């Protein structure tokens, strides 16, 4: 079975929720006026959602078209897709007391969206990381209801994941066997990357790199060795600079290595990455370094910066063997999500 581990959706029911709740508000302020948890902007380019001081790109209709998605899967040879929401709609800016309902609406919409093709999709939900204890409870409920894991952004309200008090989430994720898809959202705030499309081409993998390095060096994988985390876009730049992290621990053990009993490269090999690096030769390096048993197929559907023919890409990897193909194309995800259902 060929499994796409990295894809995004905005269910039509959730689009309706965003319109409805963004307009009516969810709380009453001092002047008896509604205070929305989020708002929306309509223009000729489409609907954009406003979360505090962050405004999303226009909602992409391709993320809401299930029949087109299934047709694409059939055309490129994907049997099953692990479907996550759009990272821009995680809603970490929403007040914690309202964020649980927001995430529940998202996850219920995602489940309903795939009803007609339930055999073609596994679901990755959203939890309110701005409220770690509530997020942990919601993750427990999700895993019991048939979800295979969660998608998380690289920061929570601008705070690094290793500084956001997320041990309750890691503990439940490890206990339930949840698959965690680590995905960049706001690339390197404060750095001017708008020119040349570098905010996406460079900023997103750089954002992942900073987050993944922080998780490793802070000891998250030391404390929770059985976490099943996949860093998208080939793990950012970390696999290619892991020697520098190792050297940092050797050079400054009291600073870089104070939470670790091993070198960073040992923890990196516990992490999974996807194939969305857009170059078969780079994939060859990743497979050689991490092992084919820690690489999963990904498309980043439906975004043009993804790989919308991932099976062809993996088959073009120099010297790829049949066992390596089997691991990357489906066996790894089948093993990681063996508790599904």
TL;DR of this structure?
The chain is α/β, with parallel strands linked by helices. The chain has helices at 12-24, 66-76, 96-113, 132-144, 167-176, 198-217, 220-223, 232-235, 238-251, 264-268, 280-290, 310-315, 322-336, and strands at 3-9, 39-43, 46-51, 54-55, 80-85, 121-125, 149-153, 155-156, 159-160, 179-183, 228-231, 272-274, 295-296. It has a single domain, classed as Metal-dependent hydrolases (TIM Barrel).
Helix/strand layout:
Elements: E1 3-9, H1 12-24, E2 39-43, E3 46-51, E4 54-55, H2 66-76, E5 80-85, H3 96-113, E6 121-125, H4 132-144, E7 149-153, E8 155-156, E9 159-160, H5 167-176, E10 179-183, H6 198-217, H7 220-223, E11 228-231, H8 232-235, H9 238-251, H10 264-268, E12 272-274, H11 280-290, E13 295-296, H12 310-315, H13 322-336
Describe this structure in words.
The protein has 341 residues and is α/β, with parallel strands linked by helices. The protein has a single domain (3-11, 67-336), classed as TIM Barrel (Alpha-Beta Barrel). Helices cover 42% and strands 16% of the residues. It is built from 13 helices and 13 strands. It has helices at 12-24, 66-76, 96-113, 132-144, 167-176, 198-217, 220-223, 232-235, 238-251, 264-268, 280-290, 310-315, 322-336, and strands spanning 3-9, 39-43, 46-51, 54-55, 80-85, 121-125, 149-153, 155-156, 159-160, 179-183, 228-231, 272-274, 295-296. The protein has an 8-stranded parallel β-sheet with strand order 1-5-6-7-10-11-12-13. The longest helix has 20 residues, at 198-217. The chain is globular.
């Amino acid at each position: 079975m060929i499994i796409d581990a990295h894809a995004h959706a905005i269910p039509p029911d959730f689009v309706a929720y965003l319109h409805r709740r963004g307009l009516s508000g969810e709380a009453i302020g001092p002047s008896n006026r509604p205070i929305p948890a989020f708002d929306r902007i309509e223009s000729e380019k489409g609907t954009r959602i406003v979360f505090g001081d962050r405004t999303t790109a226009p909602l992409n209709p391709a993320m809401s078209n299930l029949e087109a998605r299934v047709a694409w899967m059939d055309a490129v040879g994907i049997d099953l897709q692990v479907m996550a929401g759009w990272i821009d709609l995680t809603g970490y800016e929403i007040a914690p007391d309202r964020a649980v309902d927001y995430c529940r609406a998202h996850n219920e919409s995602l489940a309903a969206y795939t009803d007609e093709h339930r055999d073609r999709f596994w679901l990755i939900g959203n939890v309110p990381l701005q409220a770690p204890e509530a997020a942990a409870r919601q993750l427990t409920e999700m895993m019991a209801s048939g979800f295979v894991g969660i998608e998380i952004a690289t920061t929570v309200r601008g705070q690094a994941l290793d500084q956001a008090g997320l041990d309750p989430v890691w503990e439940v994720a490890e206990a339930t066997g949840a698959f965690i898809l680590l995905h960049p959202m706001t690339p390197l705030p404060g750095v001017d990357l708008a020119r040349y499309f570098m905010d996406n081409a460079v900023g997103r993998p750089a954002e992942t790199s900073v987050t993944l390095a922080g998780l490793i060096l802070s000891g998250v994988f030391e404390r929770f060795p059985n976490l099943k985390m996949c860093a998208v876009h080939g793990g950012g730049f970390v696999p290619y600079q892991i020697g520098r992290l190792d050297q940092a621990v050797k050079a400054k053990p009291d600073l870089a290595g104070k939470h670790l009993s091993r070198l960073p490269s040992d923890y990196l090999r516990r992490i999974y990455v996807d194939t969305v690096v857009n170059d078969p030769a780079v994939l060859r390096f990743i497979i050689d370094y991490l092992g084919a048993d820690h690489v999963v197929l990904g498309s980043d559907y439906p975004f043009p910066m993804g790989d919308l023919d991932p099976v062809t890409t993996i088959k073009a990897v120099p010297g790829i063997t049949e066992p390596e193909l089997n691991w990357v194309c489906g066996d790894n995800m089948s093993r990681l999500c063996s508790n599904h259902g």
